[in-house]
């Protein structure tokens, strides 16, 4: 029963409703899979000048290796400390620099994860270690989770078409995102579940700047496409449509971002109030699901020399239909970013709280067998940037699991990341 609930909540639609913001130009749509880093930030350096030469011709490759060590300090379940690791490869092509056409690009993100570290701990329904959970489909597999084309039309329109790892859209967000390797590890912060956006989508995204609002439009297949490359059943189950509006202003002289996004899916979903019908009766379906979210981000500290760096307050609230969407409402809030200590400007940190109210229909249906409540938790992390290419950090989570029979879980871990 627990596995059924997890599959329903996580794999059906567990990624956010908004695109990431550019660190230097908050609120703008960033089609890159990963924010480019200087050569000095790589263990292998400039490859004798070859890396710079390739970049000048429009070709860039970034490799990152991350090692996790995590265990359950208290709570129900396996309390063994386990290791896991992952490799992330980002390969980008700039068609203009390559001498092909203006404003175009190809972005790819290839992932490989391994190890015995469980992504779920202590009875929590949300993965406490996103890096050990995504991409879906099990470990010891090489998965190209992003393969998409980009095209700029003038200065105000950007397009993306193809297979897109939805977490990549948050690559440059100072609080959310990070794939579980740079910032938070719990998926509630890495990619706030919405119930209507799968981990990997296939479709198109458009960003249109119309001062003072930047609009983001998305149309994509409602099913997860992590392990698909040339599917012949796109949109057979319906279509998901999303519209977002982002406004960037100033509050107390510091950057403040407001984002409102709504997503609607035409895919039929199971009637959550009928999940435990007798075997000879078929569970009914309900047409469509939606999620509407509002995000407020305000920098409390911005570095004058590097305006894209700083830390601040982040709040995200969402409302959903609750049936067939297993999520009904949620709130996520915290403080985080980069350079908390003046002497440690490259260190990153975060303190976050999340609360997920699951579907009343789902809870009423399941509570005759399991005690399904809401889930809430707190996560704190700090990453020490020891060199431009190597960081190590600690992470602590305290979670009140949705399965009411489970005790409060306390999960701790260490993480190290090397950029090649």
Description:
The chain has 420 residues and is mainly beta. The chain has a single domain (2-419), classed as Porin, CATH 2.40.160.180. Helix content is 7%, strand content 47%. It has a 16-stranded antiparallel β-barrel. Strand 10 (285-302) and strand 11 (310-320) form a beta hairpin. The longest helix has 10 residues, at 2-11. Residues 16-29 and 277-281 have low confidence and may be disordered.
In terms of structural class, how would the helical and strand content be classed?
mainly beta
Rg is 21 Å
What share of residues are in beta strands?
A: over 45%
CATH architecture grouping: Beta Barrel
Tally of discrete structural domains: 1
Total number of strands: 16
Looking at CATH, the homologous superfamily is Carbohydrate-selective porin OprB
- Determine the number of helices (DSSP H or I, runs of at least 4 residues): 4
Helix content: under 10%
């Amino acid at each position: 029963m627990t596995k059924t609930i997890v599959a329903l909540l996580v794999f059906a639609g567990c990624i956010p409703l908004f695109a990431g913001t550019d660190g230097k130009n908050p609120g703008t749509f960033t089609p890159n899979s990963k924010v480019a880093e200087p050569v000095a930030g790589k263990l292998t350096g400039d490859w004798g000048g070859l890396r710079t030469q390739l970049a000048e011709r429009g070709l860039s490759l970034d490799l990152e290796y991350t090692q996790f060590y995590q265990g359950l300090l208290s709570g129900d379940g396996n309390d063994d400390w386990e290791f896991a690791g992952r490799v992330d490869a980002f390969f980008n092509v700039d068609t203009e620099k390559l001498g092909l056409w203006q404003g175009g690009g190809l972005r790819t993100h290839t992932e490989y994860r391994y190890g015995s570290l469980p992504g779920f701990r202590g009875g929590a329904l949300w993965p406490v270690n996103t890096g050990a959970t995504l991409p879906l489909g099990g470990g010891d597999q090489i998965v190209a989770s992003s393969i998409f084309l980009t095209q700029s039309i003038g200065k105000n329109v950007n397009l993306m078409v193809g297979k897109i790892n939805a977490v990549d859209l948050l690559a440059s967000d100072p609080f959310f995102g990070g794939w579980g390797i740079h910032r938070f590890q719990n998926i509630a912060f890495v990619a706030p579940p919405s119930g209507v956006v799968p981990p990997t989508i296939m479709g198109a995204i458009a960003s249109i700047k119309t001062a003072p609002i930047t609009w983001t439009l998305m149309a994509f297949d409602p099913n997860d496409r992590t392990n698909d490359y040339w599917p012949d059943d796109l949109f057979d189950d319906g279509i998901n449509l999303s519209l977002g509006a982002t406004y960037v202003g100033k509050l107390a002289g510091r950057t403040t971002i407001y984002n409102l996004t709504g997503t609607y899916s035409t895919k039929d979903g199971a009637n959550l109030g009928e999940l435990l019908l007798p075997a000879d009766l078929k569970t009914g379906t309900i047409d469509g699901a939606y999620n509407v979210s509002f995000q407020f981000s305000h920098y409390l500290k911005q570095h004058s020399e590097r305006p894209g760096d700083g830390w601040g307050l982040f709040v995200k609230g969402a409302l959903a239909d609750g049936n067939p969407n297993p999520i009904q409402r949620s709130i996520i809030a915290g403080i985080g970013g980069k350079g908390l200590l003046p002497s440690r400007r490259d260190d990153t940190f975060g303190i976050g709280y999340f609360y997920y109210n699951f579907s009343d229909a789902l809870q009423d249906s399941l509570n005759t067998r399991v005690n399904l409540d809401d889930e809430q938790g707190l996560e704190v992390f700090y990453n020490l940037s020891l060199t431009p290419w190597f960081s190590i950090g600690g992470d602590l989570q305290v979670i009140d699991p949705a399965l009411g029979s489970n005790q409060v879980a306390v999960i701790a871990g260490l993480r190290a990341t090397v950029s090649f």
